[in-house]
Amino acid sequence: MFPIRDHNPSGRRPYVTWTLIAANVLIFLAYYPLATSDQALMQIYAEFALVPALVTEGYHYHGFLTSMFMHGGWMHLLGNMLFLWIFGDNMEDEMGHFGFALFYLVSGLGAGLVHYASGPGSLVPTVGASGAIAGVMGGYLLLFPRAKVDILLILIILFRIFTVPAWLVLGAWFALQLYSGLGADPDMGGVAYWAHAGGFVIGVALTLPLFLRLGGAGFWTRNHGQPPHPEAEYRYDATRIPTVRKVTRIPTVRRRK
């Protein structure tokens, strides 16, 4: 189950969101084809990923920034960019281009610090924009809790699209990160749950001044908890397949006398 779009496109062109998506894709395309083996890929990660143990040793601080623009594979990249595409434009709309760019970077750096604090001796390289995007999701939840989000539910062979409020999707996602983080071992690799949870909380905290300046609960009341511009309408039309009539032909049987 994952979101595929929201019902409130931004009121202005989200140049920063587009630029961030382009930067992540281009950087991935620049280094991933060079990883002709797992060893070559790990050498790239060792240089540019966030490795907590190296930070503890007193160097490799650039990994907090460079790791935000690296990904471990195509699905990792596409999943993160989908979330940024869905939730980033409305946040940029409210924060402005420069404000959103700063918000994104600070959320990502803060998420990296939380991840480091969860396992400062870990030698596992960490890559991905998900900490920064988690901050975007946290801010989105605070500003637009009742925005409509379409989610794709996949149950073996069943594919269905449901429309649910943002608070349900994002609240469930955050709860999952907390639950999974409690049982995760930072030395074993896998998903950086604490970076996700930390980025989400940081995103809420960074958005709070804007929320209060917009009127706090009054902002929710004026806009019904949704972005303050017209809602897009999506239609689910069944595919029109022309009906073909089947004509049954009964062959003529001749009798021999």
UniProtKB/TrEMBL annotation:
Superkingdom in the source lineage: Bacteria
UniProt xrefs under Gene3D superfamilies: Rhomboid-like
Subcellular compartments: Membrane
Domain Peptidase S54 rhomboid: 61-211
Membrane topology (UniProt): Multi-pass membrane protein
Keyword set, alphabetical order: Cell inner membrane, Cell membrane, Membrane, Transmembrane, Transmembrane helix
Entry GO terms, CC: membrane
Transmembrane segments: 15-32, 68-87, 99-117, 123-144, 151-179, 191-212
MF terms in GO: serine-type endopeptidase activity
Family annotation (InterPro entries): Peptidase_S54_rhomboid_dom (IPR022764), Rhomboid-like_sf (IPR035952)
Principal location class: membrane
Protein name in the entry: Rhomboid family protein
Organism field: Roseovarius nubinhibens (strain ATCC BAA-591 / DSM 15170 / ISM)
